[in-house]
């Protein structure tokens, strides 16, 4: 059973939807750990959409308390507002009759304001009028369903080595782990890719107190933040990692294996998250932070693009999808990641081989790890990695907020031979070709609502401004001549409507949330879905985070010609 609204992946009844971030007495700035989702703006928009001249909303369902309806009515009544007394009206003869309730929807500008609140675009700068990078740029966006949103995203250019890093991170049991991974993982990857000489230069600079050359140039939306209070702790752990890399170097000059570097970075960061929680911190704020990070969890899907070399490292059930344009102009999808869940037979086999035969029936139950967790690989989630004794010892010595939380004290059933969970990624390599036009990285909130082929087609048509005219499929629905005329008219208007979005990720989210049974955006449906209050939104969809990376076909083709 998955509890909603609440953590989608953890199927246990808990008192709160996620781990509490702070107690009332904690002076720490709460806003540091909550991404700005423009709640004030949403409140204003929702208030406008559902405003009634009777100055109150009486749209409550008999099954949902009015106190839960913060911004909009229950979905069953979401499109109606009525006066307090009833929907019954009286004519001039005093006879009572039932009037048709008036419908209220978000206007297109209000819908756009919500969809575009977290969008971000980056274009790779040109040199002498030419773009020498295989990446033209990227678009990204997020649409929250949880409050606060549990997804994160990151993008950065490697400054001491070549290439660009892009990633999406899907948190569960809170946003603490996904936040930490989104801040830290790229540094671990960048350090893993550095040559021995550069690592020595960095260590010598730190030792002598000299300024460090930056190793990453971040490309962040203003709402994407860093935890300043934890920066020193994170830096010390990262420094210990590069010191160990220096010590392990044999002095031989060897090429860096990108696949190995990605795997080492993922595993080392997860190990540091675990170790920091075990050791604790004398600062009460940091001590609580590292425990929250460790007891929550996050999946990660990261792409490293260097020239025509594309590596995708995936842990969990987010996905990377390559958009390929065929010779006839149509689009095809190439999957560059595998979901680590019960639908992956290889993952099921791996888990069974890692544990005794008498656990074969209990290690995965109801398509969940130990009957609880949907992804079979993730950062954090120490409840599936630590021994029972270690969990109890850390919780008992931890702050009261952690010790009083039912989720942290809960021991998974049939918990005999931990660890049951790993953060080790599965790395896929692909050599880019001129027909490879873009890459979509997205959390499973997108893939739950859209087929991969539809995702690639929609993005491809958006980027090229060309629509491959295919026969309209009605999927077994009875369609009248008038309805078919409407579908054809809508398709003809699609060319102009595509340009209302200046961001490919926004355009994709619009389709993911607003598509009707014919694959076209239905404004009424889109308005309803965006009008759901945060208490109900999670029942209908998950957080959605998307990065669309556009490749430079001319540069990719030039690489091929040189070879």
TrEMBL record:
It catalyses: O-phospho-L-seryl-[pyruvate dehydrogenase E1 alpha subunit] + H2O = L-seryl-[pyruvate dehydrogenase E1 alpha subunit] + phosphate. Its EC number is 3.1.3.43. GO terms for molecular function: [pyruvate dehydrogenase (acetyl-transferring)]-phosphatase activity; metal ion binding. Residues 135-551 form the PPM-type phosphatase domain. GO terms for cellular component: mitochondrion. It is found in: Mitochondrion. One of its GO terms (biological process) is regulation of pyruvate decarboxylation to acetyl-CoA. It comes from the Eukaryota. Its main location: mitochondrion. InterPro entries: PP2C, PP2C_BS, PPM-type-like_dom_sf, PPM-type_phosphatase-like_dom. It is an enzyme of class 3 (hydrolase). Belongs to the PP2C family. Mitochondrial enzyme that catalyzes the dephosphorylation and concomitant reactivation of the alpha subunit of the E1 component of the pyruvate dehydrogenase complex (PDC), thereby stimulating the conversion of pyruvate into acetyl-CoA. Heterodimer of a catalytic (PDP1) and a regulatory (PDPR) subunit. This is [Pyruvate dehydrogenase [acetyl-transferring]]-phosphatase 1, mitochondrial.
